[in-house]
């Protein structure tokens, strides 16, 4: 055996200094390059295969321990019971806070310090209301919708309080209506008491004006300014009061 | 071609060994045939030498890699793979059930928003774990489906499907969609590197470290629930070019929470629970109401159950 | 093997060993080329450059440089991979008639098929590596974890084995290892059937894509493979015949064989496509009909009727059938048309399957059809792949003796051995005459010898103890070989 090895070595060993040098450089250099390549390849590709089981717990654990951004709805009630109570009587009662106020886990985890920190809740914009309540094909029957073009978009919360029902209805007519020219004579764009920008553009008939502004009015009924108007009865449908034009349509 | 293409070496002066001798290029030394090693130790030793050198290199490379592995401990240790996933969670006892009620869905798209935020799904609407689509049947009986930007911004009044505009609508409903977590999932079966797998609680997950991004699972999914992550955006597994899909918010349900889309749905169109839990109303509220999977005829045993108009469609 | 100054000679192949020598050699080569040859290589170099740039763009995972989307996840790179991969199998299937079944008529296919098949497979692997986001992981993943339920895994198994077998086949083709060669050829022919079948199964198992689904997909894939391989051989033999690359007149004979095989293959493919269209239009399978309509009357119709049917099937069949067209030039034309037809066919197949998805794909509703248009990067990679294959093959044809004289003829089943079997168990000298004169010298191509030559060069240089008598005969025999050619 030893003779064989020696004979083999004799047949292959480099015979000159330069040959030895080249052989050494080639073998050692090749070994170094290969070592780095194997190490890098194994580090990149072997790790995922350490766990051969079909149910790969290491990866499942990675998925299972990702950070959350949304809290449980129940977490809000610990501090915000007032809003929760108001909400309970409302058609929005079953909506979680985060649907309108955004992801709140950071806010919840801040606890007592929430109000001081920058993890404040998002104040919803009209976009949130429109997202659900704009009329669109496919909304379930009986769901309250408006046509944004005919509604006072941009000012939802001025009239609607999403936490209760309709909080603030349009102001009622407080002067007699008998023997008067059409509403827009005075309240139109050129009138002395123009309607504000929340109103739909274009001309409206008195009928349409009174759809919203009629509560407590009467053709001959004089309501003295400063005398309280009878309280508004809750809308037949809780939120998303149909607009005049919606009804007209 | 007028001039014949002739790459034959026979005509090339440089093609044969005799040629350089006949026509030495300027600057070349006089051509002296040097000793062939074969004359010294025999032809066989050439191959022997090559194999010996190669073998030594490979052996040295493996040994060197082993040394490097000890010097730089980048390999994950066996402890990392140990069960349980998280304390107090026993996947075997869970019968997770996801119910979608298309009769309730108002198409607000908040679920899509919540999913993107919770799971770091790329912003572009092309990459979506869950989406809402609108099925509109016009009075002439044509069915139109649309899902503008996957429904992330809600829906415009009329269907955006080409040809649907202006037609009188017979019936319409919204259909939220997500991964069906099929019990017999084609994506798991076709993955060539076993990157997609099913957990003990029945959730189909993707091991991003194994995924090669071939897209086989994307084309194999009859529910279109998968996509390949892009490079320039934050992604759920923080890795570009791999398959991704809805996990039913695996990190939430493992910790006793509901998936983000369920949490945010304002009308309860998405419900989630453990059918094995007697206190969970998912069984009575949904299963008893006759919820059915979507397209069971695809044969993948989908595990998301649907209530509402979609059942009449199918 | 010998070293003369700065040039290393391996048999008949001269390898310049220093930068200056390399520069001189390249300059001499270019000087010796005809204008047409220079244009040919210039075009291929340009294609390679385009391909290289596009490949670099496609390398980082997740970069959206492809035209694909979740709705159409598989695009032109998959088409290219399928095209090159099935062409490999087709080459082996065609040449197996000679190498495995011993039909002498098809023997001239042997040597060129092996080189082309290896090249084609390498190209296919290159294309798929650019399509995949993490090709390195595939090597680990497919080897370390078996996934028997995945047709793609089986495809990897077969094509991986294919690569090994083809390397062995090509190696033994140029070295005197007839026994190994014989079994490598048989194995290559066997895998030549299995590999495109599993490649077809990759598409055929996808119930989500009704157009791809079904048992006929693997069958069509094998048939397309056969036509593609034969057509490529036809093109090569036409070029050999046209430009007199071979001393032997066999390329003319081989063109006759190509004509027969190509006609048969085209008829089978035509029947399979007719079946696919007829079945798709009448099927009750949901969503199959819209895909087929998209193919024959939708956005793909011009490519289908004009490219696939007219140019890819009818025209080559007519050329092959009409007696007046039985010339090498027209056979070459038919082969080119058939190969283009196969490429168009694979494109239509992949695209049509995704054009009408069953469902909303990751939130994208495609109506009426999915939008997919190949990006410049995808096209560039395919151009580069084709240029790579043509370039390497041109160089091989230029510098490596590809004459049929070196063909190993064998009969793999000894019990069926017939009397005039050419057995090469003896010395390679028993090979047919002709270009085999320098056969032993040509055998030195093995890479191991190349590696050894480096050491030999380094060592022998200072020794300066030339034994000229040892080198002269080899040189002389090489020169003889040159003259004989």
CATH class of the largest domain in chain B: Alpha Beta
How far do the termini of chain A sit from each other? 105 Å
The major pleated sheet of chain B works out as: 4 strands, mixed
**Can you tell me the CATH topology of the largest domain in chain B?**
Alpha-Beta Plaits
N→C terminal distance of chain B: 63 Å
Roughly what fraction of the amino acids of chain A lie in strands?
A: under 5%
Gyration radius over CA of chain B: 32 Å
Largest sheet composition of chain A: none
**Fraction of residues of chain A in helices?**
40-55%
State the secondary-structure class of chain B. Answer: alpha+beta
How would you portray this structure in words?
The complex is a heterotrimer of chains A (249), B (314) and C (485). By secondary structure, chain A is an all-alpha fold. Chain A has 4 domains: 1-35, no CATH class; 66-123; 125-168, no CATH class; 171-229, no CATH class. In chain A, 41% of the residues lie in helices and 0% in strands. Chain A contains 12 helices and no strands. Chain A is elongated. The termini of chain A are far apart. Residues 216-249 of chain A have low confidence and may be disordered. By secondary structure, chain B is of the alpha+beta class. Chain B has 2 domains: 43-82; 95-313, Alpha-Beta Plaits, CATH 3.30.70.20. Chain B has helices at 18-22, 37-41, 44-71, 110-119, 186-190, 216-220, 250-253, 260-264, 282-287, 310-313, and strands at residues 96-101, 131-138, 143-146, 169-177, 196-198, 204-206, 227-228, 243-244, 270-274, 292-293, 304-307. In chain B, the strands form 4 sheets. Chain B has a 4-stranded mixed sheet with strand order 9-1-11-10. The radius of gyration of chain B is 32 Å and the shape is elongated. The two termini of chain B are 63 Å apart. Residues 1-43 of chain B have low confidence and may be disordered. With 485 residues, chain C is mainly alpha-helical. Chain C has one domain (64-406): Up-down Bundle (Formate dehydrogenase/DMSO reductase fold). In chain C, a hairpin with a 2-residue loop joins strand 1 (2-4) and strand 2 (7-10). The longest helix of chain C has 33 residues, at 250-282. Chain C is globular and about 65 Å long. Chains B and C meet through helix 1, helix 2, helix 3, strand 3 and helix 5 of B and strand 1, helix 1, helix 2, helix 5 and helix 6 of C.
